[in-house]
Amino acid sequence: MKKMVKSLMAVTMILACSGCSETPEPTTGSLEQSVRVDLAEFIPEEKLKIDVLDVPTDNIPIEPIELVAGSDIPITLTNIPVGSSPQSLIDSQWELEKQILTNYSLNSYSIDNPYVVLNPYGWTPLSALVMFDTAVPAKVSVTVLGKDEFSNISHTFDGFKTYHELPVLGLYADYVNQVEIELKFEDGTTITNIIEIVTSAINVDAQIELVSSNLAKSQDGITFLNSTIEQIMGIDSNGEVRWMMDYYTRQILRRLENGNWLIGDADIAGLYEVDLLGKIYANYSNYQDINDDVIELPNGNLLTTSHNLGAYVKDRILEIDYDTGEIVNDIDLKNVLDKNRFNSQDNSDWFHMNALWYDESDDGLIVSGANQGVFKISYPEGELLWALTVARDVDSLGDKVLTPIGENFKPPVGQHAPMIIPDQDDDPHTLDIVLYDNNRASILEYDNEFDGGMYSRMVQYRINEIAMTVEQIWSYGEDRGTEYYTINVSDADYLANGNMLGTFGNHIVGDDANTGTIIEVNRDNGEVVFEVDIKFEDKQWIYRAEKLPMYPDVWEFALGTTKGVVKAENNHERVLGLEVTEIALLPDSDRVYQKIEEILMTDELKIEGYQAAIGVESRGAKHYLVFCSPTVTKAINLTTEPTRIEITRLINETLSDEVDYNSSGFTGNIPLEFLKNALPKQQYQLGILTELGDELYYQESQYYLTVT
After folding, report:
1. For tag attachment on the chain, is the N or C end more exposed, with fewer CB atoms within 10 Å?
2. What is the distance between the alpha carbons of residues 222 and 45, in angstroms, rounded to a whole number?
3. CB atoms within 10 A of CB 377
4. How high is the pLDDT of residue 587?
């Protein structure tokens, strides 16, 4: 291994890079070969399960491909998979709408012979658009007839009209669906017709098993759930999938007051505003990162969990103007709390913010940090009001720590999804919240008296904000025990009928690993009135679940009237913190395995991956994406993140418990315009450079691109 004399950021002289060919070509297997050599030096051959960590090449084109995302895109030849930019998706949908309207205008359609478009935008295969005219104004109701009398999904559209565009939701997959359409005229007379809509099978990345369902005692509605990555589904009381958004989403799922969804986009680390037909109304993407949660403020703006590119993650709150996408407020939680409270060796993820909830009574903001506790801060000032946390290292919190009262109190540890529920005791000084307590005390090494074993739970706390006390009122989950223990993700919701909906998002013990369970419980007697198991096939988990009506109370849909908008187009937040460094010499990879898990190019270059350092004691890794040509080598800093738990499992399986290692993840979203300005016009081989203490480790990938 070639050892660097100075740290990466101190190097300024440009030399030819080690390991770069004069004309980089796409290769397959080179990374696998280097891994075999590196790991084999430290691991017995019989323990080297390299097939688990092989680089996937199924989606890599054999020949270079031309990018068509826009004429101003400076990258022309690459073997990096190319996706659609937000603007290109919006443009495509707009053209689809115009085509639908054109096709409709070519014929006459009535209730007896309507124009039906299944899955009009390509994202929601269990939805349809039904269109027709009536001679006189009529109000329309639609009902997708269920497989039993309790599974009908109905909606009545507002107003008396002669032209009708009806979103039909709740179709069954691979089924001849019966859809009843009723017209009610202003004189009170009605006409009814039943049409058939035939759907194909859908690809669900999970096995769904209904455990129990008591329709008389459970909340009406559809249970919408989003996995950590990929699909969003809506299931009915029988465990049948009745709605799906088949798009590469990530974690965030929030219904807005206008009836649309905000969903997290896995490719751009941003947000889409979409309706239940899959139409895009807005995209928010020019930010460092939007992750885990977003809420709608009373003023209509969006409040998101985020972070800055650099050493720390998930500790920043952004308020985004709904209309323009501009950032109007920015709170760095390192200015509110002590990031060194628990003195972690690697405190890049010192807080791990995963949820927000707004208190309209006093403009306070409840913030959940899985690695610290639950806090309330003033908004927009960001001053600490109280802290619900374990009784350890609390000096930095001063007099803001809530004092427990009552019996059986246990603080939340590693929690998710706090929410304020309606008043429970007619006391204006108290605030009742519910949350999901993952109970990660032993894993986070809090070493406190409240580590009560391996279980997770829903819990209700009552907080007196004058007396600064907290009381545990209700909980559910302790008796479910180890089988339902979930160290990450998960959710707890107070429902309109007073029941609680718990999302035990990821069982980690026994044969049910990678299985999530959604449970609806009567708070008064603990009776389970709905329970469904969802077992994922590809290391996914249920991030959150919401039980809501299929149709929102407000939804104004009309073809050809509103085109989606990419908001904050001129907001250069995404490039803040990006730095380009010239590298004198690239070292050989030694004892450090670096893998690009995912790479995609749209109007930005998105990259995700991780490193495993074998027998290397240094922590606090820094990662860089390297662009190497025969004459110049440059590196752009990536964001270092904790290694995802499924990656940790893969590494453990590969290395066994006998091998010491440390690992970290890395992500980056680099605008192509930034690359155009940062890189001379050449062809580059891509690689990953990891800085661990005073040492640098480099690994070349099979990806390349050409800047023209």
Report:
1. C
2. 51
3. 22
4. 83
